[in-house]
Predict the 3D structure of the following.
Amino acid sequence: MEATEADSQAFVKILEASMVSFLPMAINAAVRLGILEILQAAEQVAEDEETTLSAMEITARLQGRTASLEETETSLNRILRALASHGLLTATSTGSSVTRYGLNLSSRFLVQSDILPSLSHFIRYMQDPVTLLACSKLDQAVLHGGNAFAMVHGSAFFPFTQQNKTYAQTFNNAMSGHSQLFMIKFLDTYGGLQTLHSLVDVGGGNGDCLRSITTRYPHIRGINLELPHVVEKAPSYPGVEHVAGDMFVDIPKADAIFMKWIIHDWDDESCLKILKNCHRSLPPHGKVILVEFILPDIVQESSDDRLAYYLDINMLGFAPGGMERTKGQFETLSLASGFSKLDIICKFYGMSVMEILK
Ligand SMILES: C[S@@+](CC[C@H](N)C(=O)[O-])C[C@H]1O[C@@H](n2cnc3c(N)ncnc32)[C@H](O)[C@@H]1O
């Protein structure tokens, strides 16, 4: 049978989709090897010097190598060119000269430093064997019900993190990195904080979102409501009080409540409990600031929408009853919890900022 162009493209598309999991594996290798930081350091040399690096130049700067220079250069180049083929690094070569690699806007988000936040922990969490193993049981969860994570690891995600300190650290660092980057854009885009005097972050992890907010608005008292094992390890930040508790039982009172990536972890019944507790804790004109992906009403193929579908699969496997939701589903939950209205205020980095008003 002669393959038509459409037939050939379809074949390649499904084969690529089958193998695309090697992409985060290659990103993880680059993160663990410190390649992004090596590329960044090369950018900081004198202006007249080359700011991109060849695989050999990166190899010479790698820590902990025991293979020969040539062997490492060859394997490293294979990782670098795969990343460049996905637009995650720049790759330049003239004629037969060796390829030189550099950071671009996307890979810059992975550079780890003491000052700048990064998504490097996010990729480490996504590629952690605990995470990957749970994903292997999705089909069983679909057929038999229940939750893939619990099938593999013996308990649901959050109880597991309470027992497994290393994995909890990996997860919390992933959330911190994402939150720190997200909040830079959030504070430049969202204008609904100035008039607040107190703000609770429900399930605020290490407290990174509140730290960003209280740094920009020092008059706001930040209260981070978290599970005891998270509070125990959370660093202290000026203006942020960590409160060990349970959002299903009680939420501290404040002018407003912030929740990022909380509602998507839970089924509707649990979300109603959380939102009703929010309603009870807020003053008459209080609001919940909700940050989540919003699913489109009909299937879409954009990168933003794909992110929401991927995370939805993550919730399917990891969070019993957890799911990404449409605007209509967020509205239904809000109104059923006693709130009067939900507005989408802005959208960036794939996520929407919503306000739910009392
Ligand atoms: C997906 S993470 C989001 C963390 C943070 N909001 C962020 O976006 O970086 C969900 C958080 O909810 C917290 N959490 C889970 N159950 C909770 C409960 N019953 N009460 C308070 N926090 C809870 C978890 O410890 C975790 O930090």
Notes: The pocket of S-adenosylmethionine is lined by residues 158, 175, 179, 203-205, 225-227, 230, 246-248, 260-262, 265 (CB under 6 Å). The mean pLDDT is 95. The longest helix spans residues 165-189. The radius of gyration is 23 Å.
